[in-house]
Amino acid sequence: MDSILVRGNGPLSGQIPIAGAKNACLALMPATLLSEEPLTLTNAPRLSDIRTMTQLLASLGAEVTALQEGKVLATSCHGEINPRADYDIVRKMRASNLVLGPLLARLGHAVVSLPGGCAIGARPMDIHIDALAALGAEIELKEGYLHANARGGLKGAVHEMRFASVGATENFLMAATLAKGTSVLKNAAREPEIVDLARCLRAMGAQIEGEGTAEITIQGVDRLHGATHPVVTDRIELGTYMLAPAICGGEVECLGGRIELVESFCEKLDAAGIAVEETARGLKVKRKNGRIRAVDVVTEPFPGFPTDLQAQMMALLCTAEGTSILEERIFENRFMHAPELARMGARIEVHGGVAKVHGVARLKGARVMATDLRASVSLILAGLAAEGETVVSRVYHLDRGYERVEEKLRAVGAQIERVKGE
Ligand code: UD1
């Protein structure tokens, strides 16, 4: 297994290109199941999660071409479709559940394995099930698989979700595009990836209004056609790389970044003493004078502070002046990076969903283990701030969501390399 070796670093300088969003792409790819015509996604990131979705769609009968230069991902679903998403693929990645809505809409039935728990929490499917049931689907659990049926097709309906789940909003949105009549989703998630999906579906002929607000209205149509759609910038990769100069000093421009993707995050950076400036090409980030200041953070659905940046923010706050309180409200078990950061000299107390981070002057390099995707990159960021060498093992987590991380950080002067394992 590969690991990443990081050495404590001085100031960084230069530019980092930000890729297309993994989470947007994982929702856009299943939309191919809604049409017989090809869907072409430009700016698709090169990640193992995207390869897993490619495998899943291929198992359902879609043709997905390999990522090419210029990062194009073309998918097509004109042949016979297999309605069964198998456990062997679904268990690898929860986002596999995003084929449920499109399969149901196109075929009137689907059999999709439950994803099971993951390291950061239980992550049930009840909100997805309620949302699709509102459109007329009957859903039963048999031997670990959800069996969904909509005899006579899906019918438009008004539905309010108990929580603004990102995935359930995406499944509802895709299913409702081909339902008969009008659907309204209340308490919908407002993440930029949902806006991106709605734009792509509209380019395919869907009639959607209100994406990016808590109420989305979808007028069902008989069929969708092919389209070409550019994947939105990855706001989590953006926020992660914005923290590199915040931690090491210097100045880095994140190409493709826009404030509106990371507004609540930028407010916290400002309070911690980091300046962010919007340029013609992206966001320029540098540390203001002096030591990082402690700030309190609460994770919330968009436009609140993203849970997917909580671990990386904690890495920054480990060396802040004062005590920061981080409250995780989206996932119940998302502080697994805290004991690893403690191995590097961080002082963190975790009680349930709250972590108290007492800033120390300097972290010290250590061998640490990545436990999930965002935790792994937080350990790399911490390593950049530490004295000496840090070795992060289990980096397969990292490869799920960050393309060429060593290359991108090395280009701005970081000392980081991948050590090949057997
Ligand atoms: C998406 C993102 C993930 C991010 C998360 C929250 C993708 C591929 N992944 O995940 O990176 O961390 O949004 O911003 O886009 N829940 C239920 N029942 C359900 C569905 C969700 O209880 O049916 C709970 C989950 O356990 C979790 C919370 O709701 O505690 C948020 O989940 P959700 O918004 O659905 O996240 P995902 O779409 O899985």
Q: Indicate the proportion of strand residues.
A: 25-35%
Ligand set: uridine-diphosphate-N-acetylglucosamine
Please tell me the total number of domains.
Answer: 2
Q: What's the mean pLDDT score?
A: 94
Give the C-level CATH assignment of the largest domain. Answer: Alpha Beta
CATH topology of the largest domain: UDP-n-acetylglucosamine1-carboxyvinyl-transferase, Chain
Distance between the termini: 6 Å
CA-based gyration radius: 21 Å
The proportion of residues forming helix, as a percent range, comes to 25-40%
Quickly give the structural class: alpha/beta
In brief:
The protein has 422 residues and is α/β, with parallel strands linked by helices. The protein has helices at 22-28, 48-59, 87-90, 100-107, 126-134, 166-177, 192-203, 235-248, 263-272, 310-317, 337-343, 373-385, 396-401, 405-410; strands at residues 3-7, 12-17, 39-42, 63-64, 72-76, 84-85, 109-113, 138-142, 145-149, 158-160, 182-186, 207-209, 215-219, 227-230, 250-255, 274-278, 282-287, 297-298, 323-327, 347-351, 354-358, 363-364, 367-369, 386-387, 389-393, 415-419. Uridine-diphosphate-N-acetylglucosamine binds at residues 23, 26, 94-95, 121-128, 163, 165-168, 193, 307-308, 330-331.
